[in-house]
UniProtKB/TrEMBL annotation:
Lineage, top ranks: Bacteria, Pseudomonadati, Acidobacteriota, Terriglobia, Candidatus Acidiferrales
Record protein name field: Uncharacterized protein
Record InterPro entries: Glyco_hydro_b (IPR013780)
Organism name: Candidatus Acidiferrum panamense
Domain of life: Bacteria
SUPFAM superfamilies from the UniProt entry: Glycosyl hydrolase domain
Length: 78
């Protein structure tokens, strides 16, 4: 979660126990304004958006968008 109103946060995340070539995706919930909402007229105005994450070895590069909640899903290669 990034609660800052204007600043995105870049992060490099080390993931122990995952092989190099880690596959990961993220779902991020955000809107153009903190006042945007889902209602009867616009039931999908604010929905999670999915994207792939860039990995280098067992590390991920991720930018947490301002005013957002992010879920990261990892795929372990065995």
């Amino acid at each position: 979660m990034n609660r800052h109103l204007t600043r995105d946060i870049a992060a490099r995340i080390s993931v122990a126990g995952f092989a190099p070539g880690l596959e990961a995706s993220e779902q991020t919930l955000f809107a153009a304004s903190i006042y945007d909402k889902n209602d009867e007229a616009h039931p999908e105005a604010v929905i999670p958006r999915e994207s792939a994450l860039k990995s280098e070895g067992a590390e991920l590069e991720c930018t947490f968008r301002h005013e957002s909640v992010t879920v990261i899903e990892l795929d372990r290669k065995n």
